[in-house]
Amino acid sequence: MIENLHKNSGKTLEEWCAIVKKENISKHGDIIQFLKDNHGLTYGFANLIAHKSKGSDAGSADNQEDLIPKQYKGKEHLKPIYDKLMAEIATLGDDIEISPKNAYVSLKRKKQFATLNPATKTRFAQRKEADCCSFTEYNEIRVEGSDFEQDSQCGIYKVFVDL
Question: Could you tell me the pTM of the whole model?
């Protein structure tokens, strides 16, 4: 995506980060809106620039191995849900890219199709941002004996698991 940024916008990532820093915008969403409104960037490119300019992307983490443990700090009781889901996801094929971020884990094939997110101390959730991407159903992940609900707007299922 970084390679395409220069091709599509005429500016390098470093140049975009300098533009954002010059504007002195601190909130992630405000950076995205600024880049979309004032420079005509797509959500994906604006999000990339926002993360890189703030150093909030997973690639900026000092130790990539710490990303998942940090997500579950203070939420350790939710980690077995993540472990169970990852075990099921592993059965879907070796073409799934598992990409830990600072706050969630992204699951991708050609496009992101799910995120695993310990949202709060009591809630493990799927997260989707506006304009993020389209979701495609690839395979079924079954967690038996659990309640679930489907988000009527995007069709994503939320699964509730008692441990």
Answer: 0.55
